[in-house]
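Our collaborator T.R. sent over the components below with a one-line note: 'Predict the complex.' Nothing else. No constraints on interfaces, no templates requested, no preferences about which chain binds where. So this is a plain run: every listed entity goes in together, and whatever single assembly comes back becomes the starting point for the next discussion.
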Amino acid sequence: MSDVLSSTVPVITMTGVGISSLRDDQRVVVDGVHWEIRPGDFWLVAGLQGSGKTDLLMTLAGLMPPVSGEYRLFGEAMPIYDEVRSDARIRLGLVFEGGQLLNHLSVEENISLPLRYHRNLSHEEAQPEVFRLLQMLDLHEFAASPPSALGRNWQKRAGLARALALKPEILLLDNPIVGLDLRHTRWWMATLSALSHGHPWLGGRGVTLVVTAADPRLWGGMARQFAVLKDRRFAVLNSWGEVEAQGEELVREAIEEPSPEGGKN
Amino acid sequence: MQKGMATTLETPRGRGLAGMRLPESPTRAAGQLFFRALFTLQGLGAFALITLAVMLRKSGTAGKVIRPAIIAEIYRAGVRLLPMFLFVALGLGLVVIGQSVSWLTRVGAIEYLGSIMVLVVVRELGPLIAALLVLARVGTAHVVELGTARALGEVEALEALGIDPMHYIVVPRVVGMSVSVFALTIYLIAGALLSGWLWAFVQDVALTPGDYFRQLAGALGVIDFTLLAFKTLAFGFVIAVVTCYQGLAQPLRIEEVSGATVRAVAQSVAGCIGIDALVIILYLAA
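Returned assembly:
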């Protein structure tokens, strides 16, 4: 395990953070977030559509500044736009809900881009590592394809490969299993579990995971920490037992209503 | 683009002024137009300065990614347009010579044919036509590509990977387009001057190639070469900055991309004409 994962110092600390909408930075979608993420955590952030899950992840990734409060990533105040702190920033990976691959590049070029940019590698020099990632995530047959030629299932997987290219210590995943078929959902669950417990790609070390989902039930047996977003509030629920015992309306809604991620469990 | 940077560069266009009701008076309309132009100029100026700063500060960063991107842009905005430019050069020579020869013969001033070619083709039409063709063929495509990429969240994806969109997206386009407009203008001018003599020959003008090129050489000065280089590089820079700004600097929705393209064309043309006017002043002052 790396130093960061063997320590108990929080890797992410939010103190009274207010988060605005990515589409409208004048609109606060979540307020007063007090949150600590420790190395090795596996967080599930549940919330209905429009509750601010994506905005929370964008703020965590440093793409948006908090509108209030203080956010620290590896001890650095965020957002960290300046060059000198970009090293801290790339220790965190983000997987977008739709993959958000660059359409003018092939799948392989998408995955190699962060490697090539941050290590100043030519296409050929980045090939061995990219090939390993493609093999590991079963993406090799799509290597030369443009992202638009891939189905949603595979685009998301390519997005994960790109986020893993720099071997991040924290991985943020926005609704990773929404819209996937059963086979791909199982693959994601197994892969995230392996990433959390120690993955060969990361030299056997585990990665700190923050996953958002509308339906928390699918993650009950996997995530170790839980949080709920509702009505601009962010509530930390430390275990699945606590989630089930909660009288929170959101949790009741999620458990009782048909799941938007593929039906009830 | 970083969120903070994008916010700084956003103008009230589209949010406040453009969405207002019809003006109550012509004065009010003129005032709105003036302030809208001022805000656009401010946004473009800031974007251009940030681009220059990134070019200088990150000149040694990720060279193995940025250099191929610049070469690809030169190929796209320059090499691929060469056949079209040679065709336009042929036409430009015909237009200028066709109009000039009959008048110069009538007044007995055919020895000024070379000077007219330099004045019209080298100083004015050559650079301007090259810039407008590159704007039409490549600049508009930039806005559509970048606007779509922005609308689809690809810019945020780059930021999430720790890649500065100004460095990865804007710098190759600015460098590539500046070099391309410069190079294509040279080809266009050379082609037009050559075709000019051909058309003169076809019209039975008693002008040997030696005399024609002596006239050209006599009319060309160091200042022509200096200002030509400045003007064409500036045209390429302006077109690239305006098209990237319209595509990237403001959050767009897919349906807003066409409007951004139209704005980019109008602002690029205005920018090029502004530079042209500045160069004319420099000619007159020299």
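Summary for T.R.: Strands of chain A lie at 12-20, 28-37, 42-47, 68-73, 76-77, 92-95, 170-173, 208-213, 225-230, 233-237.
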